[in-house]
């Protein structure tokens, strides 16, 4: 057996107390640049060794040729909101919702998540959105401090430009709140994600049960909010992201002008650009492009925007997010592996690249010294079957 990385021998590592240490042997290990037949050893929550060979020392888990890859890193998921509001106007108890959300993500291979929470409320009309993020964040952070969760949680504040109370709500967060990302979201009707008002109408009519008159009033209200608050909210949200020490993200950039503004604001990555023009502009400005896994799996955008696979084939895709289907994240990586014929590159879109974009240097790859977040996968045809998930060496699924 040849040791490729500085670490204690595999046999010595695997003789440790398995309640603290872990060895996954006889596996196909997805490294940043290649696939290695060998073993990964984790001690005290950290990767301590990666070795080559098919031996299975005493105490090791025999992976029987299964793939072992880094734990998935999710930058933008609506899943927590789905759990706290399982139906429109249904407010579910937050702690049970958070626990269920955490367990669901762990079961899909996600070991780090940035939980997206909307900041910026609308208190008038049938299309109202009420303030909830500060209260939910308090409950999430308290649960985390008590060791309730299986995986690692950070906050992602979705700063809704087209709202009434964005800056007041952002002011309620501080540098100690684990706010990793602030995204600039402008859902003003007639532009970005909802350039086609018919698409917006279908979306809100199903979500909020609006009739034609109510929808017209809703659109008029949003347009008015954009006029009154749009510029102020965007400038203020950029400033607040800096105060919080968060990475700034854009959302639904559509034109090269949108991307130029994003670059001026210091955006680190672009969530779901809606056109190939915007994606190309992101590449020119050095802004990483993130697309949704559901778009990749379905082969189309539910809003009629650019197809994610087209961006992948044009070398314009860096990061994938599960968006609204947690289980789609792992599936999308294996889909990209077929598109690119490059498994390490595909896995990086859901591990290393999102970790890098979020400035997390301690995870996202299988390297000695990084967190022991690993996933064991067996392929069934072209479908990945999860066989185990570990967070800092502790099995969570």
UniProtKB/TrEMBL annotation:
<keyword id="KW-0378">Hydrolase</keyword>
<dbReference type="InterPro" id="IPR011059">
    <property type="entry name" value="Metal-dep_hydrolase_composite"/>
</dbReference>
<dbReference type="InterPro" id="IPR051781">
    <property type="entry name" value="Metallo-dep_Hydrolase"/>
</dbReference>
<protein>
    <submittedName>
        <fullName>Alpha-D-ribose 1-methylphosphonate 5-triphosphate diphosphatase</fullName>
        <ecNumber>3.6.1.63</ecNumber>
    </submittedName>
</protein>
<dbReference type="GO" id="GO:0019700">
    <property type="term" value="P:organic phosphonate catabolic process"/>
</dbReference>
<dbReference type="InterPro" id="IPR032466">
    <property type="entry name" value="Metal_Hydrolase"/>
</dbReference>
<dbReference type="InterPro" id="IPR012696">
    <property type="entry name" value="PhnM"/>
</dbReference>
<dbReference type="GO" id="GO:0016810">
    <property type="term" value="F:hydrolase activity, acting on carbon-nitrogen (but not peptide) bonds"/>
</dbReference>
């Amino acid at each position: 057996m040849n040791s490729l990385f500085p670490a204690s021998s595999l046999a010595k590592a695997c003789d440790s107390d398995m309640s603290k240490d872990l060895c996954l042997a006889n596996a196909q290990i997805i490294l940043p640049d290649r696939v290695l037949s060998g073993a990964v050893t984790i001690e005290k929550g950290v990767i301590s060794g990666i070795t080559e060979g098919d031996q299975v020392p005493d105490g090791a888990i025999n992976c029987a040729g299964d793939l072992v890859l880094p734990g998935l890193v999710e930058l933008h998921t609506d899943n927590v909101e789905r759990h706290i509001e399982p139906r429109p106007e249904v407010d579910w108890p937050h702690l049970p919702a958070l626990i269920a959300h955490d367990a669901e993500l762990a079961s899909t291979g996600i070991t780090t998540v940035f939980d997206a929470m909307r900041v910026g409320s609308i208190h008038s009309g049938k299309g109202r959105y009420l303030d909830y993020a500060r209260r939910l964040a308090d409950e999430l952070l308290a649960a985390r401090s008590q060791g309730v969760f299986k995986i690692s949680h950070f906050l992602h504040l979705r700063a809704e430009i087209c709202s009434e109370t964005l800056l007041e709500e952002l002011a309620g967060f501080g540098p100690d709140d684990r706010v990793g990302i602030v995204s600039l979201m402008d859902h003003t009707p007639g532009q970005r994600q909802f350039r086609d008002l018919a698409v917006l109408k279908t979306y809100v009519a199903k979500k909020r049960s609006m009739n034609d008159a109510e929808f017209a009033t809703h659109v008029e209200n949003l347009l008015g909010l954009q006029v009154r608050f749009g510029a102020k909210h965007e400038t203020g949200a950029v400033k607040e992201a800096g105060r919080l020490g968060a990475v700034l993200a854009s959302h639904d950039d559509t034109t090269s002008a949108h991307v130029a503004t994003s670059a001026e604001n210091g955006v680190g990555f672009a969530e779901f650009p809606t056109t190939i023009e915007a994606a190309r502009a992101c590449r020119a400005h050095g802004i990483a492009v993130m697309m949704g896994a559901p778009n990749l799996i379905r082969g189309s955008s539910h809003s009629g925007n650019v197809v994610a696979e087209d961006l992948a084939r044009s070398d314009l895709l860096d990061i994938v997010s599960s968006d609204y289907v947690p289980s789609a994240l792992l599936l999308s990586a294996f889909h990209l592996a077929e598109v690119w014929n490059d498994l390490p590159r595909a896995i990086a879109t859901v591990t290393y690249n999102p970790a890098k974009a979020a400035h997390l240097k301690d995870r996202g790859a299988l390297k000695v010294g990084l967190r022991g977040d690993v996933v064991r996968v067996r392929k069934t045809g072209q479908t990945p079957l999860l066989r185990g998930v570990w967070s800092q060496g502790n099995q969570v699924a």
